[in-house]
Amino acid sequence: MSGTGADGTTGYGGGFGGVLPPSPPLPPGAPLPPDRPPTAGLPRDPITAATAALGNLTGLGAGYLFLRRWPRAALAWLVTAAFLFAVLPVTAEGVAGGWVAAYLLCLAALAADAWRLARPPAPRRPGVWVPAAAVVAVAALAAGSVVWCGDAQERALERDLRQELAAADAQVAAVRSDPFDQARDGYDSALATYLGVRAHHPSTDAAAEVPARIDALYEAATAPRGGQDGCAGLEPLRYLADLPEDWDDAEAERLAERAVAELPEPLHACGMQHLDTDPVAAAEPFTELLSEHGDSEYATGLAEELGARQGQAVGALEGDTACEALDEIRGLAGLFGRLPGADFSRLAEEGAAAEPDGLYECGVSRFLAGAFEDARSTLEELIQDHPEDGRVDRARDIVIAARIAAEVPAAGEELPPESGGGGATVRVEVYNDSPYELEVLYTGPRTGRDTVEPCGDCSVYPAGTGEDEFCPRGTDYPHTVLNLPAGEYQLLFGTADEEIRPNGASDSFDSAYIYTYCNYVTEDSLLPGTDV
């Protein structure tokens, strides 16, 4: 369709392909029209901008993908990859807060950038499902991240805790065979690890394994060790029994209760072991047994058990076993005096009452065995400590015979006779040509002792003096006279303080004769340190 305008121009009408007519001239003074659409610079749609911003908060650059900004999406991926590189693998301590804060700041910047880019006009408005999906995606990703991080942290924690437990197990295994005083530090360290895992992470699987590991530590600590006596087992049990003093933990209490329940038996065994070597040393384990485990069967039966042992020793106070039995009675007496309770005081009194029997029987046994010095010291103890005993006089005779037998062995072939002898008597005169008091010991049909006072005008003869110069005639020497039953005698001349070397003799006395002895001292007969 065509026509001619009033101004002579030709125009075409119709709705398609025609040329727009020129704009009519503006009236004088009218303002110029704007050079851009009135909507430019405003958000195309708040929902679109929010969708892009939320998409970037996922950390996957979803907002940039929505806006088809490919390079920026790659940058978002790079930020997320850097964050994951920094925080993975997740450790037992979790993700450091600094990295999380930095990453959140980056996500906020990416979200703001997506909001800014969504401002230019868009050809059409997106559907409501797009922002809704973005919100759901962000929420799901956040929740999934929290769950994943928590699970990763939990698995890392379990891994670290098991490594700690394995290291503690290795410590226990390393010191298992060592003496406890050397192994104690290792047990302390392992126990600290076990109880620390249980106290600080009680809900973990590793914490659930702690009781079994602590039981293994108990078995290792209390296991018998080669080359150690029975008392060595007390130290680890005492250590375990005292754990609650250092650890406020139910497992420590459980181990302590177990150790306390097991202590009476080794305490008893340790004490009984000492009875054979050093009975007084048994006082420590027995006292602990009686004081701290008094209700145990080992404590309640201890007095009867030790009383029976003392009774056996008293029954063995004769013959070759007398000295061993005496030693045991004395050892038990020393032990009983250190144990608490009236039963042990009574046992101590019973042991003391049997001591004189032991001293006498032991002295006789040693004399017959030829141990004359031991016999002498044992019987002298009876004489000094129990002067009221009815065997003191007999003990003195045996002591005299033992002293003589040390120089004249024939005097120790048998015990001196208990009777004083009878029949015809012999006169024996003993003179003292020395400045020392003379002691005369004799044994035979009769055993006894006599002394002769020192000679005031006499002196010690020089070494090498001839026999004819001793005891010159015509001198009034101090002397004593012994009237003895006839028979075989062994004699010993010396001093009571044993300052000179004694001189022994054996003689057969006949009642038809008078026997005379003159004692003198030469320089070479003086014992070292004797004053002349």
TrEMBL record:
Segments passing through the bilayer: 47-67, 74-92, 98-115, 127-148
Keywords on record: Membrane, Transmembrane, Transmembrane helix
Highest taxon of the lineage: Bacteria
Biased composition (Gly residues): 1-18
Presence of keyword Membrane: yes
Region (Disordered): 1-45
Keyword presence, Membrane: yes
Biased composition (Pro residues): 21-37
Protein name in the entry: Tetratricopeptide repeat protein
